[in-house]
Amino acid sequence: MPIKKILKIAGIILLVIFVLFVGLLIISDSLSRASNDNAGYGEPGVSTKGVFRSGAPSASQSSYSEEYALDSDMAAPKAAPGVTAEIDKKIIKTGNLSLKVEKAETAAESVTNIAKLNKGEVSDSSFSESGAGVKSGYITIRVPYDSFDKAFAEIKKVATQVVSETSNAQDITAEYIDLEARLKNTQAEEASFVAILSRSGKIEDVLAVTREVARVRGEIEQLQGQMRYLNSQTDMSTITTQISEDVEIAAVSQDWRPWEKVKLSVKQLLANGQGFIDGLIGFIIVVLPMLVIYGLIIWLVYWIVKKIYRRFRP
Prior knowledge:
This protein has 314 residues and is of the alpha+beta class. The chain is built from seven helices and five strands. A five-stranded mixed sheet has the order 2-3-5-1-4.
């Protein structure tokens, strides 16, 4: 078959596929528009949101789905046109400091006092002392958001040297607004279900609505918990301070006990001597007799081999 004929057939096939593809796109677009037009059952302004999230509605569910749609539309809050609600920014502020101080205990007390003076509190602290007698640790405080910069600057004055300092401000306003909108919508949904539940109806309908009320109530409590947590993080800012003492040439440490060291050394000497004597006794009783026996066996084998060799030697 000539190549031109093959290319002509391939071009016709591609053209047919393209025409079919365009036709399918036009048909699917028409069907989607028709479904959107019929979504309100021919009644403009009426929401048809069902009670259940998935699955086809049963006969018992369809009896109250339209009632719920009307109630949800009436219960949903509507903003007045041209009015924008003023929203406070939600920002989480955190700070970290690494300080060198003369005395860790004194510095920790100063940081605690700074927190109290700024209407804050100490949330966590931990200190330890190394073998060289140098104390180090950290202390974490929480202060109101407006007092963060003031407390941060006051804490730095406690140090003899500020090794490092970092501060971070995370804006969570969008996340908080989203939670707030979801909470309002869910509360409106709950009010609609409660309104339906107060009406007389079939037992199946009452049980179905009761389940939906329980589900929506769980979502509301979860959203409220998330909002409370974000409020606690934005209302109070966190400052974590790492504190370590400057190394000093000090006198004899209080933990130094030479007599205790002498006793430990004598005890170690006695233990080593006891181990040496135990090893010597084991060598004499166990190892030495075995060496004698092995030596006799080797000498006997050597003597026999020597005799045989002399007898058969030419």
